[in-house]
Amino acid sequence: MSEPKPPTPTPGDTYKGWLFKWTNYIKGYQRRWFVLSNGLLSYYRSQAEMGHTCRGTINLATANIAVEDSCNFVISNGGAQTYHLKASSEVERQRWITALELAKAKAVHMQAESDDSGDECPAAPPSSGQGGGCRNLEIQSTLRTLGSKVEDLNTCNDLIVKHGSALQRSLSELEALRVSGDVGDKMKQVTERATLFRITSNAMINACRDFLSLAQSHSKRWQKALHSERDQRIRLEETLEQLAKQHNHLERAFRGATVLPSSFSNPALGNKGGVPGKGDASDEDDDNEFFDAMEDPAEFITVPADPKYHRSGSNASGFSCETGMDDQSVNFDELSLASNPESPQTLELEPVRQRRTRIPDKPNYYLNLWSIMKNCIGKELSKIPMPVNFNEPLSMLQRLSEDLEYYELLDKAAKCQSSLEQMCYVAAFTVSSYSTTVHRTGKPFNPLLGETFELDRLKDCGYRSLCEQVSHHPPAAAHHALSEKGWTLRQEITLASKFRGKYLSIMPLGSIQCLFDKSENHYSWKKVTTTVHNIIVGKLWIDQSGEIDVVNHKTGDRCHLKFAPYSYFSRDVPRKVTGVVTDKDGKAHYVLSGTWDEKMEFSRIMQSSKGENGTEGKQRTVYQTLKAKEIWKKNPLPEGAENMYFFSSLALTLNESEEGVAPTDSRRRPDQRMMEDGRWDEANAEKQKLEEKQRIVRREREREAVKAASTPEEGAHPDNYQAMWFDKFDDPASGETLHVYKGGYWEAKEQGSWDMCPEIF
Question: Distance from the CA of 758 to the CA of which of 439, 483, 538, 620 falls in 20 to 30 A?
């Protein structure tokens, strides 16, 4: 990559260029694009990011600039931010130091304009604004004087360079004529030029002395402004922490005085003042950046279809659906069952086991979240040990299994004769998996490598599920669920999380796939980004944002779902989700709409046309649809859920002890069990023991891998861990590689043979 040569820095110019910034001991120095403008030094991963994603900014008005060696220098603003930078050469480093010093001086002058005290105007500010005018006049006069002195220095510098070069040429000529005796004229010329050089140097010295004297006369005010800014920042941090403590005490007092209703579903609307805007970005490893969302114009509009479609008895789209039926008397569940004459109309499943409906109430332990999280800004949270005070008594494997809470949607999808109708159910299932997260601000336990979790609901619900932690760094979990109703769900999810100061973003990486036996339809999709807001002050609340494409790899059908991020400026309902189901030719057949925390509805499209241009000049599609029908609705939370981590009925049963599970099952994890029982101090101690044990096992595995790699017969990699129940598989349909279930777990459980399982707890 060719780099443009940076210009010589001058006061007031924007200075840009590449520098190497120290990130951590693993990655070392990383190349970043730096921009110096208006007294602020900002950096980006590349020049293309300048329009939308700033990775960090430091104010030079309060910063110290120190040179370490020929290429390295450090910029720090008193401990809150420190940039260790390295230039490509000593000349380049000097250009940046000069530009930074000039920008710092200018920033200090700009800051002095807001100084509430002056040497010449000490009186209280009058109402007419004369005090502000006096300060402005003084600052302008000082700037003009300093500017004239700088011009004098520049002129003297040019003269010194000119006369110095002439003097050097004369000395060279004198050296060449030393052999001959005719040196009188040359000596006279050298003497004259030396005199000019001495005069110019004296002028330079005098100009420097005047500039230094003038700068020293104002240094007290600059120093005072600097100390005032630092004191103000310290007071602001103390006030912010005190406010967070007071808010926590008030919230605890409120919970003690009354019980929150289980229908409370929108903390964002009740606390708009706590929703932050654009956060300070200090990310080094991630490309995703979140801002307060502006209102996004809808890509399509739905209007009621012409009455002729309601009266028509024909099947306009070729589906086994409701065109000739009364919209008021038919629901989507009945339609789905009616579309498959071979399926029974009624099917009653009686549970074979009475499962628990309560867990011990969450203890009211106080711990300042900001005191821990302030040191984690921009870091990967999976690599940072966190106390159980911020957790919930479930592992990430159990949270993955919660995706099956609305398994009935896949049961109904398996009975559909139409692939497009089946797509509606699959899309609703993808949305339903987020409904359990609306109040769940607790962090699940990070599973240990080799940890498993089984969810055997074969007799209750007709499916059984198995999860295993197949990788430690990066943490990855594989999941496999098989139903008697003719569907298989498999997924491999890797979570990347970053704390960004005001909010926490969680980016699930990986793919989810659903396969149906009868139709052989193969669906795949990915998850959207989860954001936890109000980390510092206010009530924590969760938002889901992004887009999902559910693809049927057999037929080419597709459903594009859009999760709208929360926005102050939007007039839509919060947590809105919209989607359109299209066939392989791009023709739209169904529209889905609703919210990811309450319900989803579908409408069948009878006709589509191009409508008016939107606010951004995009032409929006108008869909004429039949009346919307409910396809999914969230189950109510159990009574007292606000005291039980807002667990759903399924979540309450996930950590219930069961006989015959594998020794690696999450139910057997001691720190998680202690937390559920309310023994948080013991849980924290046990959690540290388990994590240290895992580190010892990893180091031993690395040593064995090194030994194996040194032999000619076989090589190994330290992270080449072989999962117990899953194997890597290259899926030809989706083109993705993921861990799939290889079999053997349920047979081992039936035989009670767990000798091959590692000891991880």
Answer: 483
Would you say 452 and 756 are in contact if contact means Cβ atoms under 8 Å apart?
no
How big is the chain by its Cα radius of gyration, in Å? Answer: 34
Question: Which pLDDT does position 346 carry in this prediction?
Answer: 43
pLDDT value at residue 534: 81
- What span, in angstroms and rounded, lies between the C-alpha atoms of 264 and 11? 56
Q: In a 10 Å sphere around its CB, with 0-12 CB exposed, 13-18 middle and 19+ buried, how is residue 342 labelled?
A: exposed
In 3D, which of 374, 385, 375, 380 has the Cα closest to residue 286? 380
pLDDT digits (tens, 9 = 90+) for 484-508: 999 999 999 998 887 776 788 888 9
For residue 747, how far is the Cα from the chain centroid?
A: 41
Tokens for 528? 């959207």
Alpha helices in 644-736 (DSSP H): 649-654, 670-676, 680-710
pTM: 0.59
Query: What's the pLDDT at 426?
Result: 97
Give the residue among 429, 475, 515 at the shortest CA–CA distance from 734.
515
Question: Tens digit of pLDDT for each residue in 78-134?
Answer: 666 888 999 988 888 888 888 888 888 887 877 666 554 444 443 333 343 444 455
649 three-class SS: helix
Strand partners, 196: none
- Report the run of H or E that residue 120 belongs to, with start and end: none
748-753, long-range: CB < 8 A, 24+ apart: 748/662, 749/454, 749/660, 749/661, 749/662, 752/660
Question: Per-residue pLDDT tens for 195-237?
Answer: 777 777 777 787 787 777 777 777 777 777 777 787 787 878 7
Residue 298, CA distances (Å) to 295, 561, 576, 596 in order? 9, 12, 11, 17
Taking the C-alpha atoms of residue 614 and residue 616, their distance in angstroms, rounded to an integer, is: 5
Residues in the chain: 761
* Residue 655 CB-half CA count within 13 A: 28
